[in-house]
Amino acid sequence: MATNNLQAVKYSMLELAVVGQDIPIPQVLENSLETAQKAEELGFNRFWLAEHHNMKAIASSATSILIGYIAGGTKNIRVGSGGVMLPNHAPLIIAEQFGTLAQLYPNRIDLGLGRAPGTDQTTAQEIRSDRMQAVYRFPDEIDKIQAFIDRNYAKVRAPIAEGVNLPFYVLGSSTDSAYVAAKKGLPYVFASHFAPTHLKEALRIYRENFQASKFLEKPYVIAGINVVAAPTQEEAETLSTSMLQMTVGILTQKMTYMQPPIPMNDELQKIKHHPAVAQMNKFAFVGDAATIKTQIEDFVTTYDINELMVSCNVYEQEKRIQSLEILAKIMQGKTA
């Protein structure tokens, strides 16, 4: 893929509804909707919401409800799950929930499916006691949802889901999911925005083992990146300190509310370049338009990406929107 042809690459957004310090949850959810509306205006292809539990800094735990909220407040942008952690749920319930969404918002709903818990093991056990068995059944449970849609499940029906247009996507952060996506002939979404280690190998496995299906003729790759863009490199570095503090919280298992940005200092620079932090944020692109453009071109070219799934964790809503505006101009070829 030519590095000067980003216009051929679709760009989408992953939303966690991150709760900032001193920002009440109702405001967080309103901000999510405003962000989706702005993303739609800026030409983003999809707006996906992630499922997480028992995390006070993330408000997207009831993912299907938020998807309905976002879809109801937008007009054309695709809205979906990035993803539903399927072992947490019965396939029938997911078929009914997303079948309902697809009936309400025709040709706009996506179902991204992952097998990770989206939480700690204790909480995962609380969500579904037979979760580990469901993990091993992940490929079969994907098929079961499709069977409800196709009305091929003999024992039980999900009438609300029958015949709906609901594209499936397989999410993953390891090589296991690559085999699943390839065998089923489904688009593959890799969580390189926080788990970049296996990206290259997972994409190789997916492409080499891909089997064409009624859903997809050839491999389609969506890859996650973090973006913090600003008019100047210095401002972007400052804004990125909120994301940096979140990363440290995740790695130390002391995740708290997203913190307001602070000027980048020597201590934060040391943290930023710590091997564990640097590895987790390998695909965190921070800077002005020229810097971000170069980073994205290199990423897209190196890994032959069809679509970017962008996470933008910026504390102030106004600055977050600004970051998305800069990104959209880059992707549309409106920057030098």
TrEMBL record:
A GO molecular function assigned to this protein is: oxidoreductase activity, acting on paired donors, with incorporation or reduction of molecular oxygen
The record, for SUPFAM superfamilies, names: Bacterial luciferase-like
One Pfam family this sequence matches: Bac_luciferase
Which GO cellular component terms, listed alphabetically, does the Swiss-Prot or TrEMBL entry include?
cytosol
Boundaries of every Luciferase-like domain copy: 21-302
InterPro entries membership: Bact_Lucif_Oxidored (IPR050766), CmoO-like (IPR019949), Luciferase-like_dom (IPR011251), Luciferase-like_sf (IPR036661)
UniProt record similarity statement: To bacterial alkanal monooxygenase alpha and beta chains.
Under NCBIfam families, the record lists:
oxido_grp_1
Listed name of the protein: Luciferase-like monooxygenase
